[in-house]
Amino acid sequence: MDDMGIDVVLLGYGAIGQAVHRMLGAHDGEVRVLGVLDRASLADPDPAARTARTTGPDGPGSGPRVPVLDLATAIERADLVIECASPVAVRAHGPAITGAGTDLLVASLGALADGRLRAALEAGPGRCHYSTGAIGGLDLIRASAGTINAIELHTRKLPAALLHPGLPGTLRSAITRVAESGTAAPVFSGSVADAVRDFPSNINVAAALGLAAGDLDLVAVDIIADPAAAMTRHEITVRGDGGNYRFGIENFPDPANPATSALTARSMVSGVLRLAGRGPHFI
Ligand SMILES: NC(=O)c1ccc[n+]([C@@H]2O[C@H](COP(=O)([O-])OP(=O)(O)OC[C@H]3O[C@@H](n4cnc5c(N)ncnc54)[C@H](O)[C@@H]3O)[C@@H](O)[C@H]2O)c1
């Protein structure tokens, strides 16, 4: 980081990565997008092949284009790597990023339900920032950490936003039945650890609440599959010694990925601008 802003690299270039890239284009005096890490660039052993490629939002020929980088170059050049890929990517690359002194902003907070990974990321010397992602109120929950007795999260999503290739068979059948019946029904009830196991990329909000509260075990998660849900709804109830709090958040799904709320990319851009020094700062 210098007086002229920060240099960032995007780890993951799907719905969120492309939206973040597009939005940061309006702030290039404060935040420069140096490039993108994608699956191929992380796997390809030939750096020349990687730097010869460029990518941009919405396919070839439209939007700002940037180089596809290898991990070593990204870590060396960036002040901040913006993760918007998957929990697997956080596990695979996060410790190398913060370990080399580069900061990391994580969207896939479900990965941090693993305490050992969390400790590795937070050992630094790079800082690990957690995105507020698809919800708000995390400042209040963070401020109340140590006084909270219980948090309930009721999430209502389209069945298609819950289905993913690794889903256990019983859950897949239950969600598919709901989709076919056309009637909303509960499909999951459990802890953050259970939710992250069954829906690793779909319920980052549950991990965000537990991380903010300082104890993942305080959070009870219910998921309702709703074929009529035009919006993803999170109802959050916090009970504590200092007070009781309720948040209701309704997000339009991102048109590029119904499993992601359009708010998530905006939250990441807002966080990056804050790291670049742009106020107003609510702290
Ligand atoms: N915190 C939140 O509230 C919140 C909300 C929505 C999504 N998320 C997280 O953000 C992630 C990205 O969401 P999206 O809608 O952009 O998904 P997406 O599927 O549209 O795009 C993901 C991109 O990351 C890449 N990727 C995935 N795993 C990778 C790996 N191991 N190494 C390198 N690249 C990899 C994919 O190839 C793809 O380009 C989700 O997986 C989820 O974990 C968090």
Please provide a written account of the structure.
The protein is 35% helix and 27% strand. It has eleven helices and 14 strands. The mean pLDDT is 93. The protein has 283 residues and is an alpha/beta fold. The protein is globular, with a radius of gyration of 19 Å. The protein has a five-stranded parallel sheet with strand order 2-1-5-6-7, with helices on both faces. The chain has a five-stranded mixed sheet with strand order 9-10-8-11-12. 43% of the residues are buried. The chain folds into two domains: 138 residues, Rossmann fold; 114 residues, 2-Layer Sandwich (Dihydrodipicolinate Reductase, domain 2), CATH 3.30.360. Bound molecules: nicotinamide-adenine-dinucleotide.
Write the layout of secondary structure elements.
Blueprint: E1 6-11, H1 15-24, E2 31-37, H2 39-43, H3 47-51, E3 54-55, E4 66-67, H4 71-77, E5 80-83, H5 87-99, E6 103-106, H6 115-122, E7 128-130, H7 138-143, E8 148-157, H8 169-181, E9 185-191, H9 192-198, H10 204-213, E10 219-225, E11 232-240, E12 243-251, E13 253-254, E14 257-261, H11 262-275
Parallel strand pairs: 1-2, 1-5, 5-6, 6-7, 8-10
Antiparallel strand pairs: 3-4, 8-11, 9-10, 11-12, 13-14
Helix pairs in contact: 1-11, 5-6, 9-10
Nicotinamide-adenine-dinucleotide is lined by residues 12-17, 38-39, 42, 84-89, 92, 107-109, 131, 133-134, 201, 204-205, 208, 257, 260, 264.
- Gross morphology is globular
Content of β-strand: 25-35%
- Helix amount, in percent? 25-40%
Find the structural class using helix and strand composition: alpha/beta
For the largest beta sheet, what order do the strands appear in spatially?
2-1-5-6-7
> How would you characterize the largest beta sheet?
5 strands, parallel
In CATH, the topology of the largest domain is named: Rossmann fold
Bound molecules: nicotinamide-adenine-dinucleotide
Taken together, the total number of domains comes to 2
- The CATH class of the largest domain turns out to be Alpha Beta
Radius of gyration: 19 Å
SSE topology string: EHEHHEEHEHEHEHEHEHHEEEEEH
Strand tally is: 14
CATH H level of the largest domain: which superfamily?
A: NAD(P)-binding Rossmann-like Domain
